From TrEMBL:
Cited Pfam families: MMR_HSR1 (PF01926), YGR210-like_G4 (PF08438)
Domain of life according to the entry: Eukaryota
CDD domains reported for this sequence: TGS_Obg, Ygr210
Transmembrane portions of the chain: none
Every OBG-type G domain range: 5-274
Annotated InterPro entries: Beta-grasp_dom_sf, G_OBG, GTP-bd, P-loop_NTPase, YGR210-like_G4
Protein name per Swiss-Prot or TrEMBL: Piso0_005393 protein
Taxonomic classification: Eukaryota, Fungi, Dikarya, Ascomycota, Saccharomycotina
Keyword Manganese annotated: no
Chain's gene name: Piso0_005393
MF (Gene Ontology): ATP hydrolysis activity; GTP binding
Length: 415
């Protein structure tokens, strides 16, 4: 199946990381099977919401995903979440969980850094007032930087000697040196492309090495900043400051604690809540036929407050947008392999769009086939309307994103 996408969640104690993780993994109570073979203690399944192909063909009522869920054309596609524990100052020195923390990070394709933007917790997560959350963002970047830099500088002399002796290219040598961070040659190449006109590696000074590592971090650890506790009165000024200082970063304003509460109220049948939006309805809004439970005054006021301070002001709690932003940063889009291109059904039954995979936008159709079917011999590929699709065609949103692969008999497959 190829490597699964892994999204790492980092955040200091009391930033709201566990609350965010709960909100991302809940998916309104657990759903069916999981596509992942191993779930470590610090791994969980999250669901990224995408617009499902069933909505394009008005087949929402027949859409039953094998994994994840589909509700009224909104599909939750499973992704692996990695809870990166133990964010501690000076992790790069290997203190406490430091090395484990940094090693865990490398497994992730993308990071979501949960930042307490209210400034009410200090660097250690203890209660305070007026702390500058910019420090947390810089701290994480610096920690990763010093770790990679330290590892490389420890052996720099011998790296340069080998580089010269073997007449290697910059990419050859760095591909080897940075491969240990779960980075393939292509990724290292992408980092070097950010720095055109680099001199041969033996002529690099300290400043050049630092630039190369920062470029590598950019491609290896793309990061979504979750500016959490956005409804706190002190948050506004901090949000503005962070966005000014990090204009190129993807920032999402969140209130995880609100999301968790609204989902609990929906489960307990006090409200109807459409996660990812500003819509929350009570029995007063929908009438007794909604069968929602009546609210006492305290709960009624609490929900009104949430509407005013969070939902109407920000448009949503921001939690659903976190995973959407992460797959956006990774350039991933949903692709739907079907057995029957005319009915969109699978191998059995009449449910449509059973399967959905996230692939890099612009991938070739054949690379999607390989991800799904391994080395099976493919006789032909069809797109919507039964049109033939060439192996070298590429996929994009609503372009070659619904595909049927015909296998040569005897060419093994499990589609």
């Amino acid at each position: 199946m190829g490597k699964e996408v892994v999204i790492g969640l980092v955040g200091k104690p009391s930033s709201g990381k566990s609350t965010t993780l709960n909100a991302l993994t809940d998916a309104n109570a657990k759903v069916g099977a999981f596509p992942f073979t191993t779930i470590d203690p610090n791994k969980a399944t999250g669901y990224v919401e995408v617009e499902c192909a069933c909505a394009r063909f008005s087949k929402e009522d027949r859409c039953k995903p094998t994994y994840g869920y589909c509700r009224n054309g909104k599909r939750g596609v499973p992704v692996q979440l990695l809870d990166v524990a133990g964010l501690v100052p000076n992790a790069h020195l290997g203190r406490g969980l430091g090395n484990k923390f940094l090693a865990d990070l490398t497994e992730a394709d993308c990071l979501i850094h949960i930042v307490d933007v209210s400034g009410t917790t200090d660097a250690e997560g203890k209660s305070t007032r007026g702390y500058d959350p910019l420090k947390d963002i810089e701290w994480l970047q610096e920690e990763i930087f010093r770790w990679i830099m330290g590892n490389l500088m420890d052996r720099w002399g011998s790296v340069v000697r080998r580089h010269v002796a073997t007449k290697a290219s910059n990419l050859d040598t760095l591909g080897q040196q940075l491969g240990g961070y779960a980075a393939n040659r292509q990724l290292v190449g992408k980092a070097l492309d950010l720095l055109p006109g680099l001199r041969p590696l033996q002529d690099w000074d300290q400043q050049t090495i630092e630039q190369v590592i920062r470029a590598f971090m950019k491609v290896k650890f793309p990061t979504v900043l979750a500016l959490n506790k956005m409804d706190h009165p002190d948050s506004d000024k901090n949000v503005s400051k962070i966005i000014l200082k990090h204009p190129d970063s993807k920032c999402v304003l969140t209130s995880s604690v609100t999301e968790v509460l609204l989902r609990k109220l929906a489960r307990d049948n006090y409200v109807k809540y459409d996660s990812g939006t500003e819509f929350v309805d009570t029995v007063e809004d929908l009438g007794p036929e909604s069968r929602l439970r009546p609210l006492d005054e305290k709960l009624h006021n609490r929900i009104e407050n949430i509407k005013d301070l969070v939902l109407y002001r920000f448009g949503s709690t921001g939690v659903v947008q976190l995973l959407q932003s992460a797959i956006g940063l990774l350039g991933l889009i949903p692709v739907y392999p079907v057995r029957n291109i005319n009915s969109f059904t699978g191998a059995s039954g009449d449910s449509v769009f059973r399967d959905c995979v996230l692939v890099k936008r612009g991938s070739t159709v054949i690379s999607v086939a390989r991800k799904l079917l391994g080395e099976a011999t493919i006789a032909s590929i069809e797109g919507v309307g039964g049109t033939r699709v060439a192996e070298e065609d590429t996929v994009d949103v609503k372009k070659n994103d619904i595909l049927s692969f015909k296998i040569v008999p005897g060419g093994s497959s499990h589609a």
